[in-house]
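R.M. (postdoc): so does anyone remember the format we settled on? I'll just put the structure tokens first.
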């Protein structure tokens, strides 16, 4: 049975500065590069046949590092904006703590964590779900049905939307779901077309060479 691997990109420059990033195309920090290398190490004993990522540099950079570390640099890579991060509209570039002072903590919490609420000029998690999941069903799922192991490197909210679909989570259940940077998760594609989250088989030898 095929496996689906999900990785959120490594720490970005605006993650470090606690800014709303959204569709702004920032790159990885030294820590983010180290996280990507470590993710590659954690996946080094897994077989990968095809990879999907967004159009944003932080995701593509993370993917390229993972594929280099795992020795899979030659596998097909599909880049599509459907996997982009959720757009934060007018909030992009703003510091999150300062934004909470400006608009109020409750309002900013609703924009960040709720399913339906849109920030000014941006997308809700529902909007993100409605572009990520159809893309997954139409383009990624067929690869799994062919028995190919798939790696997706994307973003916190595009992956939250996909996980909501894979795990059949409710609107209330997805609110508290956190996606850490650079930590792979794995789902096995089952014969009944469902997905079962399974642990990744970690490499036998410990390595400590991925510090920034």
């Amino acid at each position: 049975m095929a496996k689906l691997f999900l990785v959120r990109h490594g720490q970005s420059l605006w993650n470090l500065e606690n800014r709303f990033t959204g569709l702004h195309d920032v790159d990885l920090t030294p820590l983010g590069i180290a996280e990507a290398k470590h993710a590659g190490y954690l996946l080094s004993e897994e077989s990968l046949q095809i990879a999907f990522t967004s159009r944003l540099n932080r995701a593509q950079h993370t993917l390229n590092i993972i594929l280099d570390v795992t020795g899979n640099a030659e596998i097909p890579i599909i880049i599509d904006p459907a996997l982009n991060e959720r757009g934060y509209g007018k909030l992009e570039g703003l510091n999150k703590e300062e934004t909470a002072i400006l608009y109020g903590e409750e309002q900013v919490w609703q924009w960040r964590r709720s399913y339906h609420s849109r920030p000014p000029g941006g997308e809700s998690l529902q909007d993100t779900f409605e572009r990520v999941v159809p893309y997954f069903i139409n383009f990624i799922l067929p690869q799994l049905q062919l028995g190919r192991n798939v790696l997706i490197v994307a973003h916190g909210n595009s992956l939250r939307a996909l996980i909501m679909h894979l795990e059949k989570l409710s609107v209330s259940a997805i609110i508290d779901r956190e996606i850490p940077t650079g930590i792979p998760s794995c789902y096995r594609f089952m014969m009944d077309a469902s997905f079962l989250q399974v642990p990744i088989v970690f490499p036998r030898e410990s390595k400590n060479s991925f510090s920034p």
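R.M.: ...and that's the designed sequence above, right after the tokens. Also worth knowing: The chain has a mean pLDDT of 94. Residues 3-198 form a domain with the Rossmann fold fold (CATH 3.40.50.1240).
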